[in-house]
Amino acid sequence: MLKPQSSATRELLNLDGLWRFAVENDETAGSWTARVESGLEAPVPASYNDLFTDPAIRDHVGWVRYQREVRVPRGWAGERVFVRVDAATHEGRVYVGDVLVAEHVGGYTPFEADITELVTAGEVLRLTIAVNNVLTNETIPPGSIEVTADGRRQQRYLHDFYNYAGLARSVWLYSAPALRVGDVTITTDVDGSTGLIGFDVSTTEAGQVRVSVRDTTGRVVGQADGAQGTLRVEDVTLWQPGAAYLYDFTIETLDDAGAVTDEYVLPVGVRTVEVRGMQFLINGAPFYFTGFGKHEDTAVRGKGHDNAYLVHDFQLLDWIGANSFRTSHYPYAEEVMEFADRHGIVVIDETAAVGLNLAMAGGIFGGVVKPTFSPETINDRTQAVHAQAIRELVARDKNHPSVVMWSIANEPGSSEAGAREYFEPLAALTRELDPTRPVAFVNVMFATFETDLISDLFDVMCLNRYYGWYADTGDLASAEVHLETELRGWQEKYGKPIIMTEYGADTQPGLHSIFDQPWTEEYQSAYLEMNHRVFDRIEAFVGEQVWNFADFQTSVGIFRVDGNKKGVFTRDRKPKAAAHALRARWTTLGK
């Protein structure tokens, strides 16, 4: 799905700001298009949970409504008019006046509707967006609803981050011509010093297509007629990690008379990605990932996108010497992906499939163990929703040069019966949708190289391991032995690249000790140093992404006190001692 943009033929109206807001229930659904009279207002973009002082809103399970009036620009007469929601967590319904125009399930990918027949240029429309935060065994991520003794509904889930909900990303109106660019798929390759840009354009109506490529000076370096083909760019400047270079790829549609009806400009980075043996190659050169699993998480805003935090977080990535991150555990805002494109940061792009592991309920979270894959738990309908999430992720992010690998799930029950039947079709689907990037999933600590059932289906071994924290707690000597033993087992069995996509220790800032005492800043640094000694001894190792970039909010309980504290930065982005230790390593790492 192409992101809306302003161009010579398109216009864009941002609807961010304060919207009327109300908590709803299933019984009031029939009156959702009526004027919201709650007296509450909520900002867009932002999660709603931490905005208000009423705990009933923070802990609400079900639907809420956002509403505002919008004036359609007078100049849009004769154009197609669309409403676009960048994300509604986890289900959204959009109404124009009293008419339902769009429905979408999935909390982190965009959806839109053509509302041309319902609006008039220059006039006002009432826009209502209903958002539902309920998770079930057939949603991605999954969850369940429990009813308390006093009749309250409580949302349960197994992912270790707070279930923030609402309109955490922007809402837009935009105009576009009837004959326009519908979609484009870009692929890139290199032939000596020549860059190859493959393109496949679809249009909304029958018409002609022409394309051109300009370098950063505006000089045309390639052009062609037709909707499919390959452009050759002589003396190409490659998109490189840490040295981004983007060409402008311009697509025009033309009517039968040869007049231009639409123009869409897409930034394109020419680069190659390949897994060869135990190496991960970008532009034919071995690449070693340094960085983090991150979260879209800040105080008050929750998962609300914020450009100030975007800029500051990338500055901290640069300061610490990180070259990459994983979008754990869901697709991030498109602005984040575009920023990574422009600044040469490498991205492992992940779906929202986290929590597909009911054994965790009997492990670190406590509870009764149920089989993960069964008709009553994670089933065929879940798999279908998961497949749609993969389709939408690839459709949105396929043209970003920063994205070098797809991660289709985080820590599923990959050693359980039914795992292979569930994941084999999903891995095949991902490769069918995008044959140009490696495909991975992120393996949970319980699924060792001896018990995992699906790793042969994937290109890279992405492992989350916490020796010295959840296992061998406080005993780094034993942790070092056990970690190295397991990593050598993965290397010998599969002979594929290995990335440690999570390793970390909860740390309370300001807590100190001269001993190896968990929760202290000294222990976090020593824990990381132990891991790094092991990584440096494993030939197949191609990357390390610490869990986590910054402390983040989770459901609060005896297991988590005000969130997860594994960040090397605090939630407000202050460095812990480990941040300085990582900077010393990553800014001098000769890999």
Automatic annotation (TrEMBL):
Transmembrane segments: none annotated. Pfam families: Glyco_hydro_2 (PF00703), Glyco_hydro_2_C (PF02836), Glyco_hydro_2_N (PF02837). Its EC number is 3.2.1.31. Residues 273-588 form the Glycoside hydrolase family 2 catalytic domain. It is an enzyme of class 3 (hydrolase). Residues 180-271 form the Glycoside hydrolase family 2 immunoglobulin-like beta-sandwich domain. Keywords: Glycosidase, Hydrolase. GO terms for molecular function: beta-glucuronidase activity; carbohydrate binding. NCBIfam families: PRK10150.1. Belongs to the glycosyl hydrolase 2 family. This is Beta-glucuronidase. It comes from Sanguibacter gelidistatuariae.
